[in-house]
Amino acid sequence: MDNEEPIVFAIDDDASMREALSRLFRSIGMRASIFSSAEEFLAFKRPDAPAALVLDVRLPGLSGLELQRELNGSGIPIIYITGHGDIPMSVEAMKAGAVEFLTKPFRDQVLLDAISVAIKRDRENRKERAEVAEYRARYELLTQREREVLSHVVEGLMNKQIGAKLGTSEFTVKIHRKGVMQKMKAGSVAELVRMAQKLELPSLKH
Question: How far apart are CA 25 and CA 32, in angstroms?
C-alpha cells in the first residue's frame, strides 16, 4: 500500500496561488492535484496513496474549516494556508488535527517541510488502519466462546479462573485459548493484549 507515490492536494480559489503551488510541486517532482474549490476536490476520486492536503481557509462554497469537518475520519492530514487567518481560526484548525497553519506569504521551504510532516503522519496512520483491519479480520474468525476466553486472557486470568467464570473445565479453556492464539496469530499473551487494545474490545474499555 505505502509503495505508492505520495500525492499532495491543494485547494485555493486564487488562480495565481494555484499556479505558484503547481510550479513549486513540479519543481521538486512532487505528484500533485490542485483545485479551485472544496466541492471540486470532494468530487475527485482520490488515489489510494499517502497524501497531504494544502487548504486555503476562505473558499467559495464550503470553507476550509467546513471541508475539514466534512473530511473528519478520512485521515488525510491538512496544512492550512491563508491570507486572512486569525487566532481563533488557527486554534480551531489545529484542535481539529491540522498539521500546520501558514499565513501568506510564507517561504516555500516552510510549506514543503509541513507537507513532509503531513505525509509521514499519513503513512503512519494508514499503516495503523491496515494493522487494525487485519486484527479485525482475525478476530472475526473466532467463535463466541473463543472471544469470551480472549477477553478473560487479556484481563490476566489463569485458565482455571477462566474455566470457573465460563462454567467449563480448565482443559477446555486450554483448547479454546490455543485456538485464540493460532487464529489471532499471537506469539505471546502480551501480543494478544496489544491486539485487543488496538481493537478496543469492550473488556478493555473500562
Answer: 7
Instruction: Please indicate, yes or no, whether residues 82 and 153 belong to a single structural domain of this protein.
Output: no
Identify the domain boundary among 65, 97, 128.
Answer: 128
**What does 15-76 look like in DSSP terms, one character per residue?**
HHHHHHHHHHHHHTT--EEEESSHHHHHTS---SS-EEEEEESS-SSS-HHHHHHHTTTS--
18 located within any domain? yes
Please give the model's pTM, rounded to 2 decimal places: 0.77
User: Cβ–Cβ contacts within 10 Å for residue 173, how many?
Assistant: 25
The number of folded domains in the chain is 2
Segment 150-194, tens digit of pLDDT: 999 999 999 999 999 999 999 999 999 999 999 999 999 999 999
Kindly state whether residues 92 and 169 are assigned to the same domain.
Answer: no
Edge-to-edge strands, sheet with 51-56: 32-35, 7-11, 51-56, 78-82, 100-103
Full domain range(s) for residue 172:
141-204
Residues 130-159 pLDDT 10s:
999 999 999 999 999 999 999 999 999 999
Residues 83 and 184 in one domain: no
Instruction: Check whether 16 has a pLDDT greater than 90.
Output: yes
Phi/psi for 55 (5° steps) reads: -130, 125
Distance from C-alpha of 154 to C-alpha of 184, rounded to nearest angstrom: 13
The answer on 108 and 189 residing in a single domain is: no
